[in-house]
Every structure is written in structure tokens, then in C-alpha cells.
């Protein structure tokens, strides 16, 4: 029985077709290219290969490269105005408000980014809490502490909280802890993964009907 919902933010609560997250990744690659004096065309592969064992690119830079300026990193990766590609999503707001369960957001981005995105979508009031990378002391998903700290702060139970994310490794991290999860697989990239999948966030009520939910 599901009693609460925990959402990822980027490419989960909005479509990847907006290009917002693509632009974020490009800025990450440029940051790495500048830091290591690499051609931009090589920086993406370099970043992915080296950051793979970690939840975030920042964690890799801090742990392995001695980087100690997370504020500068976030200011570059998430500049003001990045949300301009989004539009208010009245359908999403109505859908979220129609689900009689408490909801929270867990993101590996900083709070300023999350607040801008939620405000632009018009859904900020739908959530009882937003748990960002600063809240989790710069240890993001799939570190177990990231999920557990957010659940504890929100008063949610792991086994009764459905987690929704667009990245398989973050979904797996939650499932490995013993929680139920759904992968938002918008482009059908992961058809063979043994988990529930949706293509759009608007399909969530169908999943809840299937699993079963109980209003708090």
C-alpha cells in the first residue's frame, strides 16, 4: 500500500523534450573541459567515465580531484533563467493535486534550481518538502543516505513511499533499499529493466491504481 510519493525533479516532472537537462549536461561538460583543458568534444566522455562510480559529477570532482568550490560549480551549471524553456503545467498540477497522498522532491541539484523549476511549472505548492544536494551534504542519489534522509525528514516510510525517477541507477538505488519505485522512461530506452515504467508523469495515477494507495 502506497502512502506517500517521492519524486526526482529534472526530466521527471517535465519532459526531456524541453531541452533543459540537455543544456545542464552541456554546461557540465564545458565546466569539465575548462577544468582539465580538454576539447569540448572529449569532455563528455571523460566526465561520464570518471564520474560513473559516483552519484554526481561534483562528487567525483571533490573526491578525486580535490575540487572545493561547489557554489561556483552550481552557479555555472544552474544559472538563473535556465527555466525559461519551461511553461506552467496546469495538467500536471491538477494531476498531482488529485492524488490524495503527501508528496516530496528529492534532487541531486541545488535548492535554488529546484525552486525555480517548481515555480515555473506552477507546482511548488504540491510538495511538502524539497530535499536537495545541500540537504544531503553533497551526497546525492544513489547514495542510500540521500533517500533515507529525505524520507526521515518528510516522515515517509520507505516501504510505503513510491519513488519516481528517470535514471535507472537512481531507481535501482531505492529498490535496493527495499522501496517501491517507477522509472520514467520517456524514450523507451530501458525496455528490459525489471521494474515498472511510465513514459510520462501523467501515467502515475494508473500505476497507483495498480499498486494500491491509501490516503494519509
Q: What class do helices, strands and sheet pairing give? A: alpha/beta
Which residues sit in consecutive blocks of at least 5 with pLDDT less than 50?
Answer: none
How much helical structure, as a percent, in the residues?
A: 40-55%
Main β sheet profile: 6 strands, parallel
Secondary structure blueprint with pairings:
Layout: E1 4-7, H1 20-36, H2 40-51, H3 57-65, H4 70-77, H5 90-98, E2 103-106, H6 111-121, E3 129-131, H7 144-154, E4 161-165, H8 168-177, E5 181-184, E6 196-198, H9 204-211
Parallel strand pairs: 1-2, 1-4, 2-3, 4-5, 5-6
Helix pairs in contact: 1-2, 2-3
List keywords for this structure.
6-stranded parallel sheet, alpha/beta, 216 residues, globular
Question: Would you kindly provide a brief summary of this structure?
Answer:
Helix content is 44%, strand content 11%. With 216 residues, it is α/β, with parallel strands linked by helices. It has a 6-stranded parallel beta sheet, sandwiched between helices.
Amino acid at each position: 500500500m502506497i502512502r506517500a510519493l517521492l519524486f526526482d525533479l529534472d526530466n521527471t516532472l517535465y519532459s526531456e523534450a524541453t531541452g533543459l537537462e540537455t543544456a545542464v549536461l552541456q554546461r557540465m561538460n564545458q565546466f569539465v573541459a575548462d577544468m582539465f583543458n580538454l576539447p569540448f568534444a572529449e569532455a563528455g566522455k571523460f566526465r561520464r567515465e570518471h564520474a560513473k562510480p559516483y552519484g554526481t559529477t561534483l562528487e567525483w570532482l571533490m573526491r578525486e580531484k580535490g575540487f572545493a568550490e561547489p557554489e561556483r560549480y552550481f552557479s555555472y551549471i544552474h544559472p538563473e533563467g535556465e527555466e525559461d524553456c519551461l511553461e506552467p503545467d496546469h495538467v500536471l498540477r491538477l494531476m498531482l493535486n488529485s492524488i490524495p497522498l503527501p508528496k516530496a522532491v528529492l534532487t541531486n541539484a541545488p535548492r535554488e534550481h529546484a525552486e525555480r523549476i517548481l515555480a515555473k511549472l506552477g507546482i511548488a505548492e504540491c510538495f511538502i518538502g524539497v530535499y536537495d544536494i545541500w540537504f544531503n551534504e553533497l551526497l546525492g542519489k544513489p547514495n542510500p543516505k540521500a533517500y533515507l534522509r529525505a524520507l526521515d525528514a518528510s516522515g515517509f516510510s520507505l516501504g510505503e513511499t513510491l519513488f519516481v525517477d528517470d535514471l535507472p541507477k537512481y531507481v535501482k538505488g531505492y529498490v535496493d533499499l527495499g522501496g517501491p519505485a517507477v522509472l520514467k522512461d520517456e524514450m523507451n530506452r530501458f525496455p528490459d529493466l525489471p521494474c515498472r515504467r511510465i513514459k510520462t508523469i501523467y501515467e502515475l495515477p494508473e500505476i497507483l491504481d495498480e499498486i494500491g494507495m491509501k490516503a494519509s
